[in-house]
Amino acid sequence: MTPSAYRLIDLGAARVAVNSPLNDFNAHLDLVYQHHGDGDPLSFADVRVSLLPSRGMRFWKGRVSLWSEATCPFEPYPMRSALPLFEWGSNWLLAQRLNAYLLLHAGVVARDDRALILPAAPGSGKSTLTCALHLAGWRFMSDEFGVLDPDSGNLLPLLKPAALKNRSIAIIGAHPQARLGPVFPGTRKGDVAHFVPLRDSIVERHRHARPRLVIFPRYRDGGTLKCTPLDAANTAMRLGLNSFNYRTLGAVGFDAVVRLARTTRAFELEYGDLSTAIAHIDTLFAEHA
Amino acid sequence: MTPPLSRELQLLLRALSEPLDTDSATWERLLRLARMTALHGRLAAANRDNPTVPAPVRRHLLSAERVCAFNNQMLRAELAALAALCDGSFPVLVLKGGAYALQNQRVGHGRFVSDVDLLVPREHLRTMEQGLRAAGWVPAQLDPYDERYYRDWSHETPPMRFPGRFLEVDLHHAITPVTGSLHFDPAPLFDASVPLADSPFRTLSAEDQVLHACVHCFQDGDLALRVREVVDIDGLVRAAATQHGFWTRLVGRAGQLGLQRPLWYGLHFAHAWMETPLPQSALTALPAPSALARRLMDRLVPLVMLPPDPDHPPPASVRVARLAMLARYHLQRMPPSMLLPHLARKATVRLRERFTHTPAQNAENQP
User: Fold this and answer.
1) pLDDT value at position B2?
2) Neighbours of A26 (CB within 10 A)
3) Helices then strands, each counted (H, E), chain B
4) CA-CA distance, B175 to B95, in Å (whole number)?
5) What is the CA radius of gyration of chain A?
6) List of chain A residues whose C-beta atoms are within 8 Å of the C-beta of residue B57
7) Quick check: B285 pLDDT over 80?
8) Banded model confidence at residue A1, pLDDT cuts 50, 70, 90
9) Fewest CB within 10 A of the end CB: N or C in chain A?
10) Complex ipTM value
């Protein structure tokens, strides 16, 4: 394995380099990172990992391990699930290392240079809504990490494929423009498939945006649309709660969420139907951003 | 002398104390080596005002600096809470990272701590432990065997944690395991201890701090990637060596406590890797290990302590060396008559876990 054997993927706010002898995994990467192009494998990578077949005990045969810096920080996955392991593992490593930024657990989409942030707890339908907004014409900036630069107050894109789970796979997959990677059945999160952001958004992966609107989405099966404005104090608190590194950043994190809460409008949005939610978000954005 | 270090490791060790000017590909390798050895906080501290650092590297150094600042704040909060338990009726010593932080020692800058180590006289151990429990610290849940191992054979109680907080508290009554070949009566440590400013705690004298770092580095537990302990020894020695008579006191103290061997190794490797300034008289005043022991240690210690190539799983030589050093540690820790049943039991437990274990358990925190 030489440094040139790595494939360097420029995600925007960070670069991930990955190396693997597994053909299926490399084909999956070709698919879900099809618009990213290949960066210079020797240039700086924020995360550099190898996906290797597990060795040693017979117990681990047929499994794949993620190696990072000569250690294997996670339990091996079944061989066919190398992509979910790479996606999850690289996200975990990015979350450890990108403390120059406030990392919100949020989807972020934009119109031109104005951004909409969708912070949410797991299971709120955040990824589904983010992808649906993107397919409805919004620029995709990120799904897992809302990357906020505390110095400029800007949001940075981090263009990773969005991990859709269970019912979302069919809902988003039904859209004529949607491109999804293979379905990985029966992972710990149920069925998972990766949504590939559209090419235009990936081309613009270095284009920052000003945060304008914050929507805390909550999907309720069969529920009607309910939109509640939030004051700045509540918004700041909820942003902190929906962040990976708010505590670690200390005063920097506090200042960042307060500034974000003061310079944006925020709403809680409960919805049971995607198209109604998107129409309402479009109206809110036109009014407030 | 020890085999020469790779250019990368030389650069890394130098960049821990002085600003480094290099290209971003080399920086990336150094960051990775530093993360493997938990030295990235130090790397960041030493290069904080270095204008030549490329932008993406600067972000990683800033990231490490922030994680380190958070770690330091947690440490200070824990120490502040523990201070309330010290009523002055017996000495409570803060060891290692906690002491370096309270002393504002340079060696503490950019140093991550994973636990707070306290040392109290053995006769006050139960009082201190009960005080901690009464105040809300909870001991780790151990099976009866491990509990007994700690209580009877170790030099510390099972680690305690305050629910909701990050750092464990390790309560020691000695700095060497009671069953180990280096065990000594810790009373002189208390006699020579020094008060810490603005706190009810005390800490080891400068010489005893060096000796403790050496004992910890070469006798205590898994030595894998422990190069940062050598970096600690270097920092402590550099800071204390300016005091008049330090070397004489250090060598004398090592003789008094029977810690000449770990001190010899500590100074030997600190000098070889960090160019720690030491008078030749200091090393020659210590009884040197046998030629065979020295050859073995010179071969094994670098393999075990220094990070291997970050792009590859550790080669067989490193895995064998780690195993050998682990065996050495166990033999020093307890006599073979105790060791064999102990290891047999540990192996059975591990094997059983292997078969009942669900893979990807640590994926639980996936967002």
Assistant:
1) 64
2) 17
3) 16, 7
4) 10
5) 19
6) 44
7) yes
8) low
9) N
10) 0.94
Q: pLDDT confidence of B364, banded at 50, 70, 90?
A: very low
Residue in the block written with tokens 């700095």: B175
Residue type, B24: S
Whether the per-residue pLDDT at B334 is higher than 80: the answer is: no
pLDDT at residue number A94 = 97
Of residues A204 and B333, the one with the higher pLDDT is A204
Q: Percent of chain B beyond pLDDT 90?
A: 68
Does any domain span residue B351?
no
What CATH number does the domain containing B62 carry?
A: 3.30.460.40
pLDDT above 80 for B303: yes
* Helix (H) and strand (E) counts in chain A: 9, 16
A contact test, residue of B40, B43, B59 with most A CBs within 10 A: B59
pLDDT tens per residue, range B167-193: 999 999 988 877 777 888 999 999 999
- Structure confidence at residue B107 as a pLDDT band (50, 70, 90): very high
* B260 neighbors B285 (Cβ within 8 angstroms): no
B2 within domain boundaries: no
Indicate the pTM of the whole model: 0.91
How does B337-349 read in b/e, with b if 16+ C-beta sit within 10 Å? eebeebeeeeeee
| B357 in any annotated domain | no
**Is B32 within 8 Å of B309 (Cβ atoms)?**
no
Q: Do A71 and B309 touch (CB under 8 A)?
A: no
pLDDT (average), residues A102-127: 95
| pLDDT on residue B365 | 35
Nearest-5° angle of CA A70, CA A75, CA A79? 95
Q: How many Å lie between the alpha carbon of A121 and the closest alpha carbon of chain B?
A: 8
Q: Which are the contacts of B340, defined by CB distance < 8 A and separation ≥ 6?
A: none
Q: Which segments within B52-203 are labelled E, that is strand? A: 93-95, 115-119, 138-139, 160-161, 168-172, 194-195, 202-203
CA distance A281 to A277: 6
pLDDT score recorded for residue B1: 57
Look at residue A256 and give its three-state secondary structure: helix
Distance CA(A173)–CA(A179), nearest Å, equals: 7
Q: Which of A2, A43, A44, A59 to mutate to test the interface with B (most CBs of B within 10 A)?
A: A44
In the sheet where A77-78 sits, what is the strand order? A7-10, A15-19, A47-53, A63-67, A77-78
Alpha-carbon distance B115 to B170, whole Å?
A: 7
Say how far apart CA A146 and CA A245 lie, in whole Å.
12
3-class DSSP assignment, residue A209: strand
A189 at interface of B, judged by CB pairs closer than 8 A: yes
Inter-chain residue contact B36 with A50, CB threshold 8 Å? no
Q: Is B313 exposed, middle or buried (0-12, 13-18, 19+ CB in 10 A)?
A: middle
Domain that residue B277 falls in = 7-346
Phi, psi of A116 (to 5 degrees): -115, 125
Q: How confident is the model at residue B154 (pLDDT cuts 50, 70, 90)?
A: low
Per DSSP bridges, beta strands B202-203 and B194-195 are: antiparallel
Among A59, A70, A75, select the one facing B310 at the smallest CB separation: A70
Number of domains in chain B: 1
Is B354 among the domain residues?
A: no
**What's the pLDDT score for residue B359?**
39
